[in-house]
Amino acid sequence: DAGVIQSPRHEVTEMGQEVTLRCKPISGHNSLFWYRQTMMRGLELLIYFNNNVPIDDSGMPEDRFSAKMPNASFSTLKIQPSEPRDSAVYFCASSPRGRPREQYFGPGTRLTVT
Amino acid sequence: QQPVQSPQAVILREGEDAVINCSSSKALYSVHWYRQKHGEAPVFLMILLKGGEQKGHEKISASFNEKKQQSSLYLTASQLSYSGTYFCGTVSGGPTTSGTYKYIFGTGTRLKVLA
C-alpha cells in the first residue's frame, strides 16, 4: 500500500513568496495532521483534520499559515507570505479511523526560505 | 507543556539495554512512541492506552503510569537498527476539558548503538 505522499520534497523560495505544500493521506484514513519540525522547537502540531473538518488549529503560528482539506484524499498547507523563520521540515501524517494516535508520517517537505 | 524526555541522548553498545522516560505535566489519556532515523520521517512504534499497560514491539517494550503521568520505553539487547531519535507523543484534553484533544510530542531522545 502507498504511504502518505507529500510534495514537493524540497522547496527553496524567497522571503515574501507564497508556498503551498501538498499531502495525500493513506487511503481509508480519516484523520490528517500537519507538523513542523525544527532543531529548536522539535516536532510541533500545526493543525489536524478529522473527516476533512479542521478540529484544532491552535498550533498554526500566525495568519500567514492556512490549511485546507477539500476531500478525503488531499490537503494543502499554505504560507503567504513566507519568512526565513518558516524554514523547517513539514510533515503530514494520517491515521486510521478510530485510531487517531496511530499516525503514519509522510516523507516530509524541507522548506528553505531565503 | 511539552513532555520532557530523559535522557536527552544515550550511546550504547550492541546488546546493551536502555530506558527512555517521558514525563508530562498534564493528565494523559494515552502515550505513543515513535522512532525517527536521521533524515527520515517518524515511524509509529506503539501506543499505550491504559494506566499501567505494557506493550511490546520486537525487543522494545513500554509502560504507562497514568497516575504519575509518565511512560518509559525499554530497549533490550539493542541492535544497530535501533539508532535514531525516539519521541513520546501524548494526548490530553478532550471533550471534558478544552473540547479538543491535544497531540503533543516530547523533546526527543537521541539513541546511538555502536557495534
Q: Oligomer, anyone?
A: heterodimer
- Helical segment count of chain A: 0
Q: In whole angstroms, how far apart are the ends of chain B?
A: 37 Å
The most extensive interface, with participating residues per chain, is: A-B, 20 and 22 residues
What shape does the CA trace of chain B take? globular
What proportion of the residues of chain B form beta strands (DSSP E)?
over 45%
Q: What is the typical, i.e. mean, pLDDT of chain A?
A: 94
Helix-residue proportion of chain A:
under 10%
Count of distinct strands of chain B = 11
Distance between the termini of chain A: 37 Å
Secondary-structure-based class of chain B equals mainly beta
Largest sheet of chain B: 6 strands, mixed
- Spell the H/E element sequence of chain B: EEEEEEEEEEE
What's the SSE pattern of chain A?
EEEEEEEEEEE
Rg from alpha-carbon coordinates of chain B: 14 Å
Shape of chain A: globular
Give the SSE map.
The complex is a heterodimer of chains A (about 110) and B (about 120).
Chain A: E1 5-7, E2 10-13, E3 19-24, E4 29-38, E5 42-50, E6 53-56, E7 65-71, E8 74-79, E9 88-96, E10 104-105, E11 109-113
Parallel strand pairs in A: 2-11
Antiparallel strand pairs in A: 1-3, 3-8, 4-5, 4-9, 5-6, 7-8, 9-10, 9-11
Chain B: E1 4-6, E2 9-13, E3 18-23, E4 30-36, E5 43-48, E6 54-57, E7 60-65, E8 70-75, E9 84-93, E10 101-105, E11 109-114
Parallel strand pairs in B: 2-11
Antiparallel strand pairs in B: 1-3, 3-8, 4-5, 4-9, 6-7, 7-8, 9-10, 9-11
Give structural notes.
The complex is a heterodimer of chains A (114) and B (115). Chain A has 114 residues and is mainly beta. Chain A contains no helices and 11 strands. The mean pLDDT of chain A is 94. With 115 residues, chain B is mainly β. In chain B, the strands form 2 sheets. In chain B, strands 2, 4, 5, 9, 10 and 11 form a 6-stranded mixed sheet that branches. A 5-stranded antiparallel sheet of chain B has the order 1-3-8-7-6, with no helix packed on it.
